[in-house]
Fold this protein.
Amino acid sequence: MKFGLSTVTRGVFSTADNYSAVAQAAERAGFDFLAVSDHLVVPGRFQSKYPYVPGGAFMVAQEGHCLDQLSTIAFLAGVTRSLRLLTSVMVVPHRHPVLAAKMLATIDVLSKGRLIVGAGAGWMREEMELLGGNFPERGRYTDEALAACIALWTQERGSYSGRHVNFSDVVFEPKPVQKPHPPLWIGGESAGAIRRAIALGTAWYPGNNSQTMPLDTPERLAQGVAEVRRRAAAAGRDPQTLGLSLLVQDVFDWTERRVADGSRRRMFTGASADMIEDAARLAEVGVGHVALRLGGSTVTEAVERIERFGAEVIARSGAK
């Protein structure tokens, strides 16, 4: 199983020097990929609930600080050499699909094939509408936009016809380095996200945390995986061709943390040996990649945490 580092484009790490330091430390420590989140703007007033914390409060609401995801990933490609770069996740309705396809292809070409496209339909109505998106139709739009990107990346002259996306005979060069296209990890746990992963994805990319997510243990994740594989087979897709990647929303920590009801230890907290065991249990479920949330109040602390995890967990788990 490969380890990744999940980052957000705000706060102490969102400067050129600090983001470079984090990415380069992750590369040295043996992390396989670095994930970058996606928000463009935060409306001054909104009612949408953030789905990953109790109560739905969104921590960026007050400051509105966020770098553009794709520009950030392009920058990180320039300061690293082997680290793969994941959009985690790109909110597909935020960008016109032809523009998004071109930006992603450019990143893949200039990074020499290190891009992973994590994609989802989004949750904040107000942000999406400000950017011209149709929130009620976001699922259908996401399906069409991703299919349109694939058409542009793989067809000699790209064409696509749908309810929301239409074009024909488009000369789209250069194509991505990775063939047939960059890996496409479909984020989300809803029925629509699972259907999208089966239809279009290289991998299903659910999230978990100890407070709100239903996939917060390897056992519960295994149940979800079994259901996804059943649906894939029913849809005519070989379940073994759909990979499984996991975003752990909680910060990894050498202080043992408990889940909300106190009944058990949170995954990737406690002793390094416990974290190695967590990784082994996830691998048994079929997880090929796991993205772990980075903690630390300063870049120095963050780099120390990255280095320790690399030495005590990645190297000893055989994932490096």
Q: What stands out?
A: The radius of gyration is 19 Å. The domain at 2-317 is CATH 3.20.20.30 (TIM Barrel).
